[in-house]
Amino acid sequence: MRGLQAGSRTVAVVALFALVTGCGSGESDDSRDEVPETAKGSLEQLADKVHCKPNIQTDAAELRQANCRNDDGRFILTTFDTDRGQREWINEANDYGGTYLVGRKWVAVGDRKVVTALRGRLGGNVEESTHHSGGGDGGHGEKPGGSGHSGHHGS
User: Which PROSITE patterns does the record cross-reference, listed alphabetically (predicted)?
Assistant: First the structure.
């Protein structure tokens, strides 16, 4: 049950991020010609490859998640203990829409431009999902008012 709670919090963070960044910009993918082999490693190793100092938000046995920022923009980097956990997380996150760069046991979430740039360094596959909720107020999370987290990330 604990893993499901962490997954729900993570999905809520992804939903907030998608709303803030404006998912689905429709820009072309100019870097698809040079995609490296899909990266492997810990959250810190992946972050280092994309020149980001990770701000760890979730550090649990089943997943680790960090807010990142580099010259390409802001994104969320998440690593998973199992392939199954990763797929379950992606399936839940797809309900909120967004653009995901997916590697083995890791996902980067950001706007299309950022994900495209990250793919040039990390490899992986881009997955896009459309938002399935009718409201645009972002108030459809698992725990309304539960954590008090505004989604604002201080410097």
Answer: PROKAR_LIPOPROTEIN (PS51257)
* Domain-wise residue ranges, the chain: 2-24+36-129
Q: Which residues contact 67 (CB under 8 A, 6 or more apart)?
A: 54, 55, 57, 74, 76, 153
Rounded to the nearest 5°, which phi and psi values hold at 18? -60, -40
In the predicted structure, residue 29 carries a pLDDT above the cut 90? no
Query: In terms of Cα–Cα distance, which of 89, 123, 87 is closest to 11?
Result: 89
pTM of the model: 0.66
Query: Closest Cα partner for 86 from 105, 109, 71, 73?
Result: 105
CA dihedral 131, 134, 138, 140 (to 10 degrees): -100
Q: Which two tokens stand for residue 29?
A: 């993918």
Integer Cα distance of 14 and 97 in angstroms: 9
Name residues whose C-beta falls within 8 Å of residue 143's C-beta, 6 or more positions apart in sequence. 8, 9, 12
* Confidence category of residue 3, pLDDT binned at 50, 70, 90: low
Residues in the chain: 155
CB 122 within 8 A of CB 46: yes
Where is average pLDDT lowest: 16-25, 32-41, 85-94, 141-150? 141-150
66: which DSSP letter? Answer: E
